[in-house]
């Protein structure tokens, strides 16, 4: 009888532990309740400060501060990608015609994955007009191929992932001197519900 008596409270304890485990909140539950917010310049500034805060001096961090004039209005989530690009870059046709430099792009779009890059390329058809778009990601495309393409041809828009863009810039294959616009795909979330800025490698 004593053994039976002792086993009952243990069972109760196990069931309460299980119940507690089930109540753990998932990021998807949190996101469902909160509406997506458009990115603002302060978000990027905070990220830069967090990332470089421990390794840079106060003066170096001050140099990293970007003035508000560096930023265009963020997509307030009412625009499609094409209509947003038309709003922030109304003189695109003129910029596209003027651009003759190799190894560079006028507009650089950064996304968290190759699949998302392809999605955005498809969705910007109404905006791009008669221009050449270069895929700047690692999936199925070798870096040497991209370097050769940049060397030989003139491209207007580059869409890719931060890792591959960084590698091309470091190898002097991609020059950013003629880049007028840099678009960050800020709000989109992958299957694990991470934004591009939530991935530590980025």
UniProtKB/TrEMBL annotation:
It comes from the Eukaryota. Residues 8-17 have a biased composition (Basic and acidic residues). Gene3D superfamilies: P-loop containing nucleotide triphosphate hydrolases. GO terms for cellular component: 90S preribosome; nucleus. Residues 1-38 are annotated as: Disordered. InterPro entries: Cms1, P-loop_NTPase. It holds the Pfam family CMS1. This is CMS1 protein. It comes from Aegithalos caudatus (Long-tailed tit). The gene is Cmss1.
């Amino acid at each position: 009888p004593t053994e039976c008596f002792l086993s009952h409270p243990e069972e109760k304890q196990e069931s309460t532990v299980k119940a507690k485990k089930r109540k753990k909140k998932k990021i998807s539950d949190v996101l469902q309740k909160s509406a997506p917010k458009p990115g603002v310049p302060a978000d990027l500034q905070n990220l830069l400060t967090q990332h470089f805060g421990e390794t840079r001096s106060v003066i170096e961090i001050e140099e990293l501060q970007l003035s508000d004039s560096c930023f265009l209005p963020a997509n307030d989530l009412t625009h499609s990608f094409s209509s947003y690009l038309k709003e922030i870059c109304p003189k695109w046709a003129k910029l596209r015609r003027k651009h003759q430099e190799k190894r560079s792009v006028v507009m650089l779009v950064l996304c968290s994955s190759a699949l998302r890059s392809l999605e955005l390329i498809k969705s910007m058809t109404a905006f791009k007009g008669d221009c050449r778009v270069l895929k700047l990601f690692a999936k199925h495309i070798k870096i040497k191929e991209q370097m050769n393409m940049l060397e030989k041809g003139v491209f207007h828009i580059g869409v890719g992932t931060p890792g591959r863009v960084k590698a091309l810039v470091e190898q002097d294959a991609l020059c950013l001197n003629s880049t007028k616009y840099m678009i960050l795909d800020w709000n989109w979330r992958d299957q694990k519900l991470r934004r591009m800025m939530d991935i530590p490698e980025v």
